[in-house]
Amino acid sequence: MTKRHSKRSSIPKTWAGILKKEEKYILKTEPGPHRKELSMPLEVVLKILGFAQTKREAKKILNTKNIIVDGRRIKSSKFPVGLFDVLTITETGENFRGTLDENGQLLFKPIKKENSKLKASKIIGKTVIRGGKIQINLSDARNIITEKTQNKVGDTLLIEVPEQKVVKHLPLEKGAKILLIAGKHSGDKGTVEKIEGERLVYKNKESIITLKEYAFVLPEEME
Q1: Residue 199: how many CA atoms within 13 Å on its side-chain side?
Q2: What is the pTM of this model?
Q3: How far apart are CA 51 and CA 78, in angstroms?
């Protein structure tokens, strides 16, 4: 078996809908903007959603029909589709968004057409560049140039794709609605109660302490 594949027994626990004993190997993702735990190869996603049953069927769909991820047509079966990415099947008009269930597993839920151009990304870095402008580095490997200074690492930007127009800025602060994207509470949702240094306290059924870096502020369009 080539390096294009991994043993099913070694795939991340976050991959929902994969039967590890069904086949011995599964396609690997190519390098991309997401961690392995938070993305799946496009071919695998098409199979999970029921648009293809075999590798040949998946390749035919990718070669002859418009499969759009975050506003761009994708033909590669290994392309990593991940958390908060929007997958559009143009032939059927269906749209899906990557999210985490309550067990921290990655899945793709159907969404309304009016939300299919909206993408949430977390700010993971900021750099001052020539002219005093600020380059914002986002969690899905996007970079946005802005003059606004209120954007902080840990905040979320809601953007339109593929234009990358910023629609909304959501600060990570008390009262923010969040999704935990890592750690033992991955997949949990709650409301921020307090932030102390690198620790964050959020309220679900009870108050829970986690790391600030695990929190992803959710726009109301994705709660």
Answers
A1: 5
A2: 0.87
A3: 16
The answer to whether 26 and 6 are in contact (CB under 8 A) is yes
- Please give the C-alpha separations between residue 5 and each of 15, 30, 42, 77, in angstroms, as whole numbers: 15, 10, 14, 12
Token pair belonging to 55: 């590798």
Q: What is the pLDDT of residues 103-149, one digit of tens each?
A: 999 999 999 999 999 999 999 999 999 888 999 999 999 999 988 77
**Which letter, b or e, does each residue of 49-80 get, where b requires 16 or more Cβ atoms within 10 Å of its Cβ?**
bebbeeeeebeebbeeeebbbbeeeeeebebb
Q: What are φ and ψ of residue 189, in 5° steps? A: -120, 155
Contacts of 145-152 with CB under 8 Å at 24 or more apart are 151/123, 151/126, 152/123, 152/126
